[in-house]
């Protein structure tokens, strides 16, 4: 692929060279375009740009977790060559870009978080009503928070079944698929509804009926922080697709570039279907590209969590909750859905909204203003 005077191994391992010849970059651009966007989202290389460390990181920082499961599995490599089998076998340079960032960035979290997270997951539950599923978590004594849109879906389900009394339940300890014998299920006490919610920021508080089975659970309101994230990694814990609890480490997409990245990803999917149009391919949540006010407080990231994970807590690498997973931008394709980008609402926005309602935020999130230095001193 590259001229023998400058082997790729030297370029990959020593970025003091800073750039490649324009001809080589043009070739790189060609192969990047051919790489299936559904596996790795790449920066559009240009023959005018040097292949610097920054560019390489940009090319691979938004690799989705599905790439980790599929791209790095030797059994699946043939699948990546179905349009250009030569790519898989001959062009290991771009493959190495993705593999390097997946290994060293996308899945790496501090081991010190393992202990706290193991405790926190006992306070994260699956909220359900008939066929509707979502995620919620304990904020305080018998008080949980979830997405407002999850609650609205529950109300629609009640209307559909013409049964306004369908119970809403929260199940904790659902950790193995299909195994709920050790789970703790509690009904929501709708007569004690806190009436604390907001449709724009997509949050809703609910109160559970008294239950001794969760008295030893750690309320997570004390680890909520209102710091606004712009980059880095986050950890989402929830019940995607209504399944057992799962965890995923995700790359935050910069707030100043997420619309550009989202549009580019969408266009790439459409481009791939130009020669073979699929009538089932269409956009959902298209308003994300147009809206500015509604999503100014969002935290965009790449994750495979979407349906059923609404309400999941989003942790930073300090082990604090900084956002709540809400929704995303998806494509309906070939009878299924493909997530292009997902979003969480940051707690700095939720805390500000509660203050505007003259609510004592510290009653729910007592340490929301604690910064990293203060937290370190108190630990």
From TrEMBL:
Classification via InterPro entries: Peptidase_S1_PA, Peptidase_S1_PA_chymotrypsin
Signal peptide: none
Top-level taxonomic group: Eukaryota
PANTHER family: PROTEIN FAM111A-LIKE, SI:CH1073-475A24.1
The name this protein goes by in its record: Uncharacterized protein
